[in-house]
Amino acid sequence: MTWDWSYAGDLVGPLLGGLRLTIAATALGYVLALALGLVWAILRRSPNVVLNQAVRWVIEFIRSTPLLVQLVFLFYALPTTGIQFSAFWTGVIGLGVHYSTYISEVYRAGIENVPRGQWEACTALNLPRSRVWFAVVLPQAIRKVIPTLGNYLIALFKDSPLLLVITVPEVMRVAYTEGGKSGFLEPFTVTAALFVIVSVLSSILIRRLEGRYAII
Amino acid sequence: MPSSDTMSEVPTPEDPQGAPMDKTAADGALPHGSTPGIRFEKVVKRFGDNIVLRELNFTVAPGERVTLIGPSGSGKTTILRLLMTLEKLDDGVIWIGDRPLWHMPRGDGLAPANEKHLHEMRKQVGMVFQQFNLFPNMNVLRNLIEGPVRVLGLSKDEAVERARELLDMVGLVDKIDAHPTQLSGGQQQRVAIARALAMQPKVLLLDEVTSALDPELVVGVQDLLRDIARASDLTLLCVTHEMHFAKDISDRVLMFDKGQIVEEGPPEQIFGEPTEQRTRDFLQAILAT
């Protein structure tokens, strides 16, 4: 088997098209994961035992089942109950919900790291609940966990090729389809290279962000 | 308010942190108005099996300045934390003025307070902490205006103006844009004092406010607090191990041991001629350190 440069060159266009979809699904999934993860983390601190135990088990359930199974379930089984999304949005929801459970743990660690005195100062100043969270606790908690949050962004990105099983024409599915026509070596290699490039660029970006928001 | 003329004068070294307080600025910035007293009625506080306060009774008159002393674990900090609602009351009633802090009137009796009642009652109380507890993600100005704007409903301009007055009073106007981590411990505590006063409390709680400071910064903060205490009509509760400061700032000293008041009286009496052996032992131990 020999490497065909002209074939590899021809693939770049279609693969970049797929990569755009991969990045879109990653970005939207990550935003969903960040938001939903925050909801989990705050609910987990609820004084209501039923609520916070319920949330705990939901998180445990989602984390203990494979993302692939969740995606297939959302795309092929859920529609039988009448709830149906497009392949792309199913992918976004699957990635987002799955990673939200990991990210909620990251938030939780960050929140637990905020000294008790900060909460007490909030009480002494009589600050409303919303300000305690959004003006005092979360800004301090999140700064400390930016590197870990960044790692999960890259992990989510690397899991996104799983969307190929639910027919999303992302980069891996494009490579698979193209490879079926003229050989798999070039499309999969170029795809891997694209993943490396995006991952490295992302980690540089995250490190910059980390430097900028490093706890002062 | 009892006179403090009889207090022994403590020499006041030059303030290492900045200019001494400007009295006129202080009068404008400090809270004035009807000041409530405090009454503890059979107050009980437990931590697990450990009973920290057992049926404690005491009263602080409106505008009175009281220092709580005693060995660690004697319950003095718990008293401040109950007043700030940082700890839950187990039994008894705490009155601030004519209203119970932890209860709401229901029929002829009292029912446990809801969050709304606690929120109302907390508006009268301010606290300065041992570890300052400034918000490190906000600059000095935002630390000072967050509460006034979000809780007292001041406009941002009003809050900024008051913040400036208070910073002027504590000698730190030039640090208005600084972040807490850029300040020394003494400066952070001054900002924390200004932040507590910005909420216009009627009762001010001081919880070992100089214990975390380097020795050379202690006197400046103490002088500031003494000036504030004298220039305002705040009801003041102070927990401290600094006997000079206690003499300087208080009308009355309460000596605690095992959640009960062992002895009380004017500072000259407690520090000069204590009648109880436990007080004598405690003061000796303090002096030895």
TrEMBL record, chain A:
SUPFAM superfamilies cross-referenced by the UniProt entry: MetI-like
Q: Does the keyword Membrane apply?
A: yes
**A single GO BP:** amino acid transport
- GO cellular component term of the entry, any: ATP-binding cassette (ABC) transporter complex
Which Pfam family is one of those matched by this entry? BPD_transp_1
Q: Where in the cell is it found?
A: Cell membrane
Tell me what topology the record assigns in the membrane.
Multi-pass membrane protein
Where is the ABC transmembrane type-1 domain positioned along the sequence?
19-206
Sorted keywords for this record are: Amino-acid transport, Cell membrane, Membrane, Transmembrane, Transmembrane helix, Transport
Gene Ontology molecular function: transmembrane transporter activity
Q: Which CDD domains match?
A: TM_PBP2
Q: Which InterPro entries match?
A: AA_ABC_transptr_permease_3TM, ArtM/GltK/GlnP/TcyL/YhdX-like, Ectoine_EhuD, MetI-like, MetI-like_sf
Q: Which PROSITE patterns match?
A: ABC_TM1
Bilayer-crossing regions: 20-43, 188-206
Which PANTHER family does this one have?
L-CYSTINE TRANSPORT SYSTEM PERMEASE PROTEIN TCYL, MEMBRANE COMPONENT OF AMINO ACID ABC TRANSPORTER
Instruction: Give the family this protein belongs to, as stated in its UniProt record.
Output: Belongs to the binding-protein-dependent transport system permease family.
| Name of this chain's protein | Ectoine/hydroxyectoine ABC transporter permease subunit EhuD
From TrEMBL, chain B:
Location of the protein in the cell: Cell membrane
| Coiled-coil regions listed in the entry | none
Q: Which residues form the ABC transporter domain?
A: 38-283
The topology of this chain with respect to the membrane is: Peripheral membrane protein
Per the UniProt entry, the signal peptide is: none
What's an example GO cellular component term for this entry? plasma membrane
Q: Which Gene3D superfamilies match?
A: P-loop containing nucleotide triphosphate hydrolases
Q: Name one Pfam family in it.
A: ABC_tran
**Disordered: where is this region?**
1-35
Keywords tagged on the record: Amino-acid transport, ATP-binding, Cell membrane, Membrane, Nucleotide-binding, Transport
Major localisation? membrane
The record ties this protein, via PROSITE patterns, to: ABC_TRANSPORTER_1, ABC_TRANSPORTER_2
Please provide, alphabetically and separated by semicolons, the GO molecular function terms listed in this UniProt record: ABC-type amino acid transporter activity; ATP binding; ATP hydrolysis activity
**UniProt similarity note:** Belongs to the ABC transporter superfamily.
This chain's protein is named: Ectoine/hydroxyectoine ABC transporter ATP-binding protein EhuA
User: From which source organism is this entry?
Assistant: Actinomadura rudentiformis
